[in-house]
């Protein structure tokens, strides 16, 4: 028993010796930069900071975020922040359609949907409701934009608002009741600039 441990130790030393000598041989003969003590300390400091960040958010190789730190979940918008933008764009959309700035209306539809992208990370379980809301309430509204039909737009706009408030209620926020807008959230856009839906290059009718 003892003999074999001894033998193992000798073998290990032998193998280490080969590996180490191999290493030193494979090093380039010239241009070995020997770091000055101060730059080595700075490197160490940077490495330490990278390690601390990786512990919080995962690393570039894809080690997953451990779910305990607040770095991603605590700093990525959930509903309150995204809904602020969403609601503003939705009210502005009304004035764009009313003023005949159809490209602006199409553009606002696009980015109000996009405003919720963050929730794919922070609210995965709400994605089905969002998708069905888009299909049932936003798509028909966009169709009226495509037709530049303000009467149909206004009718659908109010129906969509009922859908907004139904979701608020279902999620425990019945006190967030959105009414038809009295004025745009962004008062500095030209809502009566006459444009075509297609003037917004990403305009696409739903399902096309
Ligand atoms: C999928 C569900 C859902 C839909 C659909 C939805 N909302 Fe919301 N909304 C929420 C939730 C949840 C909150 C509460 C925010 C929170 O607690 O994080 C909210 C809050 C809001 C707020 C208050 C934001 C703030 O804190 O300042 C506004 C404004 C708003 N929604 C507008 C709208 C409008 C307009 C629509 C329709 C065009 C709409 N929402 C559709 C889920 C939804």
Q: Would you kindly provide a brief summary of this structure?
A:
By secondary structure, the protein is mainly α. It has seven helices and no strands.
Task: Describe the model.
The chain has 208 residues and is mainly α. It has a domain at 79-199. It has seven helices and no strands. The chain has helices spanning 2-26, 37-57, 79-99, 102-114, 119-122, 127-147, 150-170. Helix 6 (127-147) runs antiparallel to helix 7. It is elongated and about 75 Å long. The N and C termini lie far apart (77 Å). The site of heme C has 20 residues, from helix 3, helix 6 and helix 7. Heme C binds next to helix 3, helix 6 and helix 7.
Helix and strand element order: HHHHHHH
First and last CA, distance? 77 Å
Q: How many beta-strand elements?
A: 0
Label the overall shape.
Answer: elongated
Helix proportion range: 55-70%
Poorly predicted spans: 1-29
Q: Which structural class do the helices and strands define?
A: mainly alpha
Radius of gyration: 30 Å
Ligands bound here?
heme C
**Major sheet details:** none
Count of helix runs: 7
Percent of residues in beta strands: under 5%
Overall mean pLDDT: 84
């Amino acid at each position: 028993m003892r003999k074999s441990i001894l033998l193992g130790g000798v073998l290990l030393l032998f193998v280490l010796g080969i590996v180490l000598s191999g290493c030193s041989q494979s090093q380039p003969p010239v241009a070995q930069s020997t770091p000055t003590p101060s730059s080595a300390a700075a490197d160490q400091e940077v490495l330490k900071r990278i390690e601390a960040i990786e512990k919080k958010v995962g690393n570039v190789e894809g080690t997953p975020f451990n779910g305990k730190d607040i770095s991603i979940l605590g700093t990525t918008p959930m509903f309150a922040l995204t809904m602020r933008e969403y609601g503003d764009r939705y009210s502005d959309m009304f004035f764009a359609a009313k003023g005949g700035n159809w490209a602006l209306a199409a553009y606002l539809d696009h980015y109000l949907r996009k405003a919720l992208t963050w929730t794919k990370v922070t609210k995965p379980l709400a994605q089905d409701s969002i998708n069905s809301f888009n299909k049932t309430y936003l798509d028909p509204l966009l169709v009226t934009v495509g037709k530049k039909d303000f009467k149909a737009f206004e009718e659908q706009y109010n129906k969509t608002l009922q859908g907004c408030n139904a979701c608020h209620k279902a999620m425990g926020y019945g006190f967030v009741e959105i009414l038809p807008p009295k004025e745009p959230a962004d008062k500095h856009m030209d809502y009566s600039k006459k444009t075509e839906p297609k003037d917004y290059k990403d305009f696409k009718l739903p399902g096309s």
